[in-house]
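Hi support team,

I'm opening this ticket because the web form for multi-chain structure prediction keeps timing out on my end. I have pasted the exact lines I submitted so you can reproduce it. The total is 382 residues across four entries, so I didn't expect it to be a heavy job. Is there a limit I'm missing, or should I split the entries? Thanks in advance, R.K.
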Amino acid sequence: MASAISTRPPGRPRTGVHAAVFAATLRTVHELGYARATVERIATAAGVAKTTIYRRWPSKGDLIVDCLLDAFGPASLEGASRAEIMSSAIHWIAAKIGEPGVGDAFAGVFSDAVSDPALREILSVRLQDPYRLALQDALGEPEDRVRFFTDVVVGTLLHRMGMTGAPMADTDVAALVGMVLPALQRGSHPF
Amino acid sequence: MASAISTRPPGRPRTGVHAAVFAATLRTVHELGYARATVERIATAAGVAKTTIYRRWPSKGDLIVDCLLDAFGPASLEGASRAEIMSSAIHWIAAKIGEPGVGDAFAGVFSDAVSDPALREILSVRLQDPYRLALQDALGEPEDRVRFFTDVVVGTLLHRMGMTGAPMADTDVAALVGMVLPALQRGSHPF
DNA sequence: AGGTATCGAAACCCACGGTAGCGAAAAACG
DNA sequence: CGTTTTTCGCTACCGTGGGTTTCGATACCT
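Hello R.K., no limit was hit. The queue was backed up. Here is the completed structure from your submission:
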C-alpha cells in the first residue's frame, strides 16, 4: 500500500480549528441556550464559516457530542472501595454538568436524541458507552445494573437542570450519593 | 354583571374537538416520534385544520401539556403508609409514561422546555406543581425533598425512555422503588 | 509556476412553528 | 326567510434554522 501513513496529502492543509469551535460552542450555548445556539452563531463566535463546521461534523448533534467528549475528558474513577468509586463518579459527572455550557449542551442533545434514533445511537455509543464500560469494569457490576445507575444519576441531574435551568446544588448531589450507595451495596436484589 | 354565565354567546358555536385532538396527538407522537409529530400532521390526524388547533392552543407546547394533563388525569396517591404512597406514586407515573405516546410526548416537551423558559414555566406550573403539591401533602415532606424525589423518579424514567426509546421495565421500576423508599424513610439527613 | 485541497461568502432548499385573509357554514334572532 | 355573529377549513405567507451547493480566493507541496 505505497508509503501508507505519514505522507502528507497534497493541497492546502486543514486549519486546526477544533479547539476554537469547541470553546465557541460551549460559550454560545451557555450564553444563549441550546436552541438559540445555532450553527451559524457558533461558527461566527469561533471566527469560522458555517460551511467549515459542516465540513468537519456531519450534523449539529455530532458537533455537540464531540464537544462534550472534549469537555468531559477521560473518566477518573478513583477510590479504594466500590462505594468510593461510585461516589467519586457521581461527583465527577455532577461537576462536569455544572460547568458553564456543558449541562445545557448535554440536556440539549439528549432532548434532540429523543426523537432522532441516529443521534441517539451516536450519543449512546460515543459518549455514554466508554464511561459505562469503565464503570462496569471498576465496579465489577453487570451491564444492566450500571445502565440502571446511569439512568438514575444522569437522569436526575439532567431533569434538575432542565426544570430549573441551573445545575444541582452540592447538598442535593450529596443526597443523591446517599441514595445510590446503599442500593449499590445491597446488590442486585432490592426486594 | 348582566346575565353573566349560562347565556350562550351568539354566532357559530365551537365544535368539541379536544378529545379528537388529544387522541390524534398521542397517536401521531407514538407513531412518528415527537419531532415528526408536526402540528400539521396532528391536525390532519384529528380531521381538523391546523388553524383550528392554533385557535385553541397558543403553541405546540401548550397543546402537548394539555394533552398530557388529559392523559395523566388526577393523581391517585393511595396507600396506608408513607412508603406505600410513594411506592404507588412511582408505579403510577411509570405506568403512565409507559402508555403509548405519553412517554414520547413527555420527553419531547421536556426537551423543548430546556431552552424555552416560557414553556418550562408552563410545564412546571400546570403539569408538575399539582402532583408535587399533592405529594407534599400526602407525605408530609417539605418542598425541596419532594422536588428532589421528583427529579430522581421522573428523571430516571425519562432518561431510560430517551436512551432506549422504550419505557422502563417493571423489574427496573421495582429497583427504583427499592432505592427511593429507604431514602424516604431515612429522612432528610442521608449522611 | 502548476496542481490540489481547503477556506469564506453567498445563495439556496426544505421543514416546521406560527400568522393573516378569505369565503363558507352554523347557529341565534327577528 | 334574511341578517348577524362567530367559527370553520383552506391557502398563502413569514421567519428561523439545519444542511447543501457553488465559486472565487488562498495556502501548501513539488
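A quick check on our side: The CA atoms of residues 99 and 167 of chain B lie 8 Å apart. Let us know if the file doesn't open in your viewer.
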